[in-house]
Hints:
Blueprint: H1 18-26, H2 29-53, E1 56-58, E2 64-66
Antiparallel strand pairs: 1-2
Helix pairs in contact: 1-2
Amino acid sequence: MGRPVTRSGVDLVFRPSALVQLLWALGDEVTRRLSEAAVDRAIDPVLDEIERDAVVRWGETGAHTARPGPGAWPQPGSGTTPRG
């Protein structure tokens, strides 16, 4: 069978503040779109920094590193990102 494979990861959850959630839930369509746009503008710089600085480490002491390749990150519209 060999050695078990261990995989680590990070799951980030971006949640708007309670006020923004209320505005979205109780507001009209324009308010909802503005709330969603504001959340996207707040998240984008964080995702950009993660994508720019992320590295994968492996080996017993994490001595080996590499940048994730193309397609390593979910794309908007895939249902796995803040934008759906």
